[in-house]
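Session log. Operator J.P. requested a structure for one protein chain; no other inputs attached. Running the standard single-chain path with token output.
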Amino acid sequence: MTTQPERLHHLLDRARRGVILPAEGEQLAEMVGELGERLADYENRINWHTTCASCARILDSAYAETVRAETAEARVAELEADNARYEEVVVGELNEANTSLQRQAARAEANVARVRQAVDAGPVGSCCAHLIRAALNPPAT
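Structure written below.
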């Protein structure tokens, strides 16, 4: 019975000589795939400075969660900045609308004051209609 390294060397030798059978080619591909996975696992352990595969997987998971959390926090910051810009625009528009409404209210109050003044100054009744119309439509200044 041959060991895995001996079998691998045998299959590689046959592949180099171009006499490998299709079934042997599949075996070789499978062995190379397994070795690639093992190599990746060893490299991962080295990156985390550990020999424990479970520890490396836990650290991978923790790192992935940290990256996910940092990405989410960055997105939240972007959205908050967008929200602040939108609030600034909306507040500005509301202030403009409020100013316009205050002007309209001031004009209405001035009209009411003119009407009261006209009514207080003259006789009350149908005879003072011309005074009220004049108060509501003051001459342009």
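Operator note: The chain has a mean pLDDT of 85.
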